[in-house]
Design brief:
The chain is an all-alpha fold and about 60 residues long. The radius of gyration is 16 Å and the shape is extended. The two termini are about 30 Å apart. It contains 3 helices and no strands. The chain is about 90% helix and about 0% strand. It has one domain.
Length: about 60
């Protein structure tokens, strides 16, 4: 998080921030973070790990292909 904040501040200082894109990303990511945090506190580890592993495998496969 601190690295992202510093990098974002640097881009803002240079004037190369696409505010429309930033708002679109925040609209999707902030609710996802809140829901994911609340769900991970209630769902057992044995359920979350396979789901997370599956998502990471799919993302990795899409990067390779």
């Amino acid at each position: 998080m601190p690295l992202t904040l510093i990098a974002g501040a640097g881009y803002w200082y240079l004037g190369s921030v696409d505010w429309e894109l930033l708002c679109s990303l925040l609209v999707g990511s902030i609710p996802g973070i809140v829901v994911g945090s609340l769900a991970s506190a209630r769902i057992p580890d044995r359920v979350i790990r396979p789901i997370l592993a599956s998502i990471l495998l799919v993302v990795g496969a899409k990067l390779i292909l």
